[in-house]
Amino acid sequence: MPPYSLRWGIIATGSISSEFARDLLVDPATRGVSDISHNISAVGSRSVASAQKFINSLSSASPSEGWKWGVENGKLEGIRACGSYKEVYDDPNVDVIYVSTPPSAHHQNVRDALLAGKHVLCEKPFTFDLEELDELIAIAKDKNLFLMEAVWTRFHPLAAEVAKVINSGKLGKPQRFSADFSMDWKPDNEPASHRMLDPALGGGSLLDMGPYPSVWAMLLVQQNPHNRDQDPQVLFSHQTLYERTQIDLNSRWLVQWKDLCQGLLLSDLSAFGQREATAVLQCEEGDLLSHYPPYKAETFSIIPRPDRFAGSITQKTTHHHPIAQGNNGLSYEADEVARCLRDGKIESEKMPWAESRIVQGWFDVVRKQGPTPLANVKGTAGQ
Ligand SMILES: NC(=O)C1=CN([C@@H]2O[C@H](COP(=O)(O)OP(=O)(O)OC[C@H]3O[C@@H](n4cnc5c(N)ncnc54)[C@H](OP(=O)(O)O)[C@@H]3O)[C@@H](O)[C@H]2O)C=CC1
Ligand SMILES: O=C1OC[C@@H](O)[C@H](O)[C@H]1O
């Protein structure tokens, strides 16, 4: 059977769009995939010159670059440079739109794409607030269109291996959880207009980096067979204000899974976090530690409890599950979108709306309790 072939439209020509487009052009065989094929049919930008530049840079891959394969194998054939996002939504040669604008624009972009009849993969954070997300889910259901948050980490080889350990039950009941995404990014060296620093674009550590500790909260605790709580709540939170641009420099929030455990989640724009224990699940029989970076972890360890309290795990083991060579790691989520569309699904079981809703709800609580002006901002749902 020939592979299922998906035609992408890409919205925005920023840094992650470029990484994503390149991954679409890598030979799927490099990651052991033979049932899926990706094509890029259109790129949309606020300026047609930027869309064209983006396409030119894809087309001129050097022979050593993994994505050269797609260029040589017709995966850019007929690609259009569009000077507006709308032209991409309206393009009959596009099946699915990848939205990678700043967070404050996601709701409007996704809504416009869905209303134009296109399936959507939207970058994290899904939306600015839960009301926006609920509106998008309602439209997707009403129009029978696929919609997924682009949380790439969930589709990486390591995520599948971690899930096997969690589902095996060998760690026993969770007792404690923590997860962190922190980087010493030096915000003082960046312009105030940078999307990470500008509150009007949804800047700050919570919305940009918070999705990653949240991934691990979902993979290790929410999906844990011992968990029965479908609505884990934030008990309390703290954010530190970055005076210059009024975004959160860091966020911390404590989540309670009823009758199970608590988890501390952290994000930081101006300090490094843990390296070998970016996400830690401590259980009755032993602990699971996932290594840095939390967005693209390739190694995890299972470690025994301290001697006096030892459980059935008695030896440390370390497990390495790398992203396939030549891929940046975004290709796996693209494969999931293609498989869901091929199979007639409008929601991914691996990245379900319910889990995006939980995380978005946490962000709303933390943001509203915080000292930044975003605390009082409402998204664009209903407008
Ligand atoms: N999965 C991952 O690993 C990553 C995900 N992300 C997520 O992807 C999204 C985009 O991030 P990133 O690519 O780093 O951002 P960039 O700032 O590099 O690019 C954003 C693009 O959005 C478009 N845009 C639309 N409206 C605006 C506006 N008002 N101001 C500025 N740009 C605008 C621009 O494209 P144009 O001019 O062509 O219209 C711009 O190039 C975010 O949601 C972020 O959280 C980011 C990095 C990594
Ligand atoms: O999604 C992301 O992952 C990698 C980080 O460097 C980046 O800030 C963030 O947007």
TrEMBL record:
Q: What is this protein called?
A: D-xylose 1-dehydrogenase (NADP(+), D-xylono-1,5-lactone-forming)
| One MF annotation (Gene Ontology) recorded for this entry | nucleotide binding
Protein source organism: Kwoniella mangroviensis CBS 10435
**What InterPro entries does the entry give?**
Gfo/Idh/MocA-like_OxRdtase_N, Gfo/Idh/MocA_domain, GFO_IDH_MocA-like_dom, NAD(P)-bd_dom_sf
Extract the SUPFAM superfamilies matched here.
Answer: Glyceraldehyde-3-phosphate dehydrogenase-like, C-terminal domain, NAD(P)-binding Rossmann-fold domains
The EC designation for this entry is 1.1.1.179
Q: Where is the GFO/IDH/MocA-like oxidoreductase domain?
A: 161-287
Alphabetically ordered keywords of this record: Oxidoreductase
Offer one Pfam family short name for this entry. Answer: GFO_IDH_MocA_C3
Q: What class of enzyme is it?
A: oxidoreductase
Which reaction is the catalytic activity of this chain?
D-xylose + NADP(+) = D-xylono-1,5-lactone + NADPH + H(+)
Q: Where is the Gfo/Idh/MocA-like oxidoreductase N-terminal domain?
A: 6-148
Q: In its keyword annotation, does this UniProt entry include Oxidoreductase?
A: yes
Q: Which family is this sequence assigned to? A: Belongs to the Gfo/Idh/MocA family.
Keyword Oxidoreductase tagged? yes
